[in-house]
Design brief:
GO cellular component, one term: membrane
GO molecular function, one term: serine-type endopeptidase activity
Structural class: mainly alpha
Low-confidence stretches: 271-309
Distance between the termini: 23 Å
Largest sheet: 2 strands, antiparallel
CATH architecture of the largest domain: Up-down Bundle
Keywords: Membrane, Transmembrane, Transmembrane helix
Strand order of the largest sheet: 1-2
Radius of gyration: 30 Å
Strand content: under 5%
Number of helices: 18
Mean pLDDT: 80
Protein name: UBA domain-containing protein
Helix content: 55-70%
CATH topology of the largest domain: Rhomboid-like fold
Subcellular location: Membrane
Number of strands: 2
CATH superfamily of the largest domain: Rhomboid-like
Length: about 350
């Protein structure tokens, strides 16, 4: 599976590193040595609204209480580290705070509305779902969809595994569906700047600078030794470079897989001499036949057929199956004299 979220590690992602570390450590602590305090990290309508224990809105977001949630959500947090590289650490932590507030408000509103219609829920699942699932919106919008392979005819992209992890978490009980749905809606509201939330919830630059000077050196991660970073000056150019690298990898793999089965036929097709069309060839007979025996329309048609005959139909099929148009493939193969590697480069440059 192709990597679509950048290089491995926490290079340039200190906030994501803290989020993952705090979530994992607090969850494991409540799972083993501090089990007697697990009840402090749960919340429901009765506990918050009727008893007035509003502090549970905060403690319930500190740790996951289920082993499945710990494993899946920690993988999601790690996979979403690309967003901090894209936003920058200050904007990223502002984003996490904003979507957490929106998601929590939506959860409480949904609980109050359901209670009004006599729809009861058990205590909602605990954990920072309000920070994890809103990032699916940015993941969907910012990461391009490039098919890497297919399973039973269904295209599989580099994003499929992340979506499967999210569905695995959200497909539990009704309480899980409520929490994850509120989180995704919060991500959409932030994306469309609902109530000017992007400017309303923002970490001041001076505060970010103070924290960076105080603890930033503790959270720095070394640069990966084999970092394949786009060199484009803008985010759009960098994304286009990444897409082009993915396409080149996919085309190279597809050509290698099909070369073994079609190598003999393709070579024979390329080495087979083409019949000489005397009517279109040079010399006295060619000029005589073109001038006296054939209309100009037929001459153009014969010339087109001659050009098309020099193109290997097997190679045309292999390239059209990769998504290129038939006309572009034939033109590229004709220009490169059936050199499929050069034709592929021409087609990639045209797209």
């Amino acid at each position: 599976m192709l990597s679509v979220t950048g290089p491995a590690g926490f290079y340039m992602t200190p906030v994501n590193k803290v989020l993952l570390g705090v979530s994992l450590s607090s969850s494991l602590a409540l799972l083993f040595p501090l089990q007697q305090y697990r009840h402090l990290c749960t919340y429901s309508y009765d506990l918050v609204i009727e008893r007035g224990e509003y502090w549970r809105l905060l403690t319930s977001k500190l740790a996951f209480l289920d082993i499945k949630d710990i494993a899946l959500c920690c993988m999601l947090i790690y996979n979403f580290r690309f967003l901090e590289r894209r936003f920058g650490s200050r904007k990223y932590i502002s984003y996490l705070l904003a979507v957490s507030v929106l998601s929590t408000v939506l959860e409480m509103g949904a609980l109050i509305l359901c209670h009004h219609f006599d729809i009861s829920f058990t205590p909602l699942p605990s954990g920072p779902f309000c920070m994890v699932f809103p990032q699916f919106v940015q993941f969907f919008l910012l990461i391009p969809r490039v098919a890497a392979s297919s399973i039973l005819g269904v295209p599989v992209t580099g994003k499929t595994f992340t979506y499967i992890l999210g569905l695995q978490v959200a497909s539990g009980t009704a309480e899980y569906r409520l929490v994850t749905l509120c989180a995704v809606i919060a991500g959409l509201l932030w994306q469309y700047n609902f109530l000017k939330i992007q400017g309303l919830v923002s970490v001041p630059e001076c505060v970010a600078r103070v924290f960076n000077q105080a603890v930033g050196w503790l959270l720095q991660s070394p640069r990966p030794p084999t970092l394949d970073t786009p060199i484009g000056a803008t985010l759009e150019i960098q994304r286009q470079e990444r897409i082009e690298r993915m396409e080149e990898q996919m085309l190279s793999t597809a050509l290698q897989n099909s070369a073994f089965a079609n190598n003999g036929a393709a070579a024979a097709e390329m080495m087979r001499p083409q019949p000489l069309n005397v009517a279109n060839g040079p010399g006295i007979f060619g000029n005589f036949l073109r001038r006296d025996n054939l209309p100009q329309d037929n001459v153009a048609e014969i010339q087109h057929d001659q050009t098309s005959a020099t193109v290997s139909e097997d190679q045309v099929q292999r390239l059209t199956e990769m998504g290129f148009s038939d006309v572009s493939v034939r033109r590229a193969l004709s220009v490169t004299n059936n050199d499929i590697s050069q034709a592929t480069n021409i087609l990639l440059q045209e797209t």
